[in-house]
Amino acid sequence: MMQDTLKDIYVPRPTGRPRTTPDTVMADRGYTSGVNREYLRDHHVKAVIPQKKNEIASRKKKGSKATRL
After folding, report:
1. Among residues 21, 8, 65, which one has the least CA distance to residue 47?
2. Given a cut of 70, is residue 67 above it in pLDDT?
3. Which of 40, 37, 42, 30 shows the shortest CA–CA distance to 9?
4. CA-based diameter of the chain, in Å?
5. Beta carbons of 24 and 2 less than 8 angstroms apart
6. Which of 18, 28, 31, 40 has the most crowded CB, counting CB atoms within 10 A?
7. Which of 38, 34, 40 has the alpha carbon at shortest distance from 52?
């Protein structure tokens, strides 16, 4: 769903053609999936998405073996 929305967005600029990808995307906790984060990373878009509490707890439980997406 996030990918479809981002494909339809045009970011206005002062001159010239509008950009088709934003520099940064802010989303709520409903969009924390790895698929969304990977899509944004692949398209060089900075993601500002808070993590769910259970994801934070799971990462802390794993200790040094944990990774962030």
Report:
1. 21
2. no
3. 40
4. 50
5. no
6. 40
7. 34
